[in-house]
Amino acid sequence: QQVEEQLDGSVLFRLHIAVPPEFVNWLLYYGSRVEVLSPAFGESSPFGVICRLSRL
């Protein structure tokens, strides 16, 4: 894992993991404050839908 503070004050958190339910819960908790940069998930995949909904 790697954590980098960005110039704009945001934090880039790099993590290589499987996608367990706990991670999905974490994304939902932080909602629009989290942006998944990669991997790119298909819009229709369950994880892609969760990522899209978390940005609402």
Shape, per Cα inertia axes? globular
Order of helices and strands: EEHH
- What percent of residues are in strands? 5-15%
> What is the total domain count?
1
Structural class determined from secondary elements: alpha+beta
Provide the gyration radius in Å: 12 Å
Topology, number of strands: 2
Give the termini distance in whole angstroms.
27 Å
Discrete helix count:
2
- Which strands sit side by side, in order, in the main sheet? 1-2
Average of the residue pLDDT scores: 76
Helix content bin: 25-40%
Task: Summarize this entry quickly.
With 56 residues, the protein is an alpha+beta fold. 34% of the residues lie in helices and 14% in strands. The protein is built from 2 helices and 2 strands, in the order ββαα.
Describe the structure in your own words.
There is one protein chain. This protein starts with a strand and ends with a helix. It contains 2 helices and 2 strands. Helix content is 34%, strand content 14%. β1 and β2 (11-14) form a beta hairpin. The protein has one domain (17-56). α1 (21-30) runs parallel beside α2. The chain has a two-stranded antiparallel sheet. The chain has helices spanning 21-30, 46-54, and strands spanning 2-5, 11-14.
Which short descriptors sum up this protein?
single chain, 56 residues, alpha+beta, 2 strands, 34% helix, 14% strand, globular
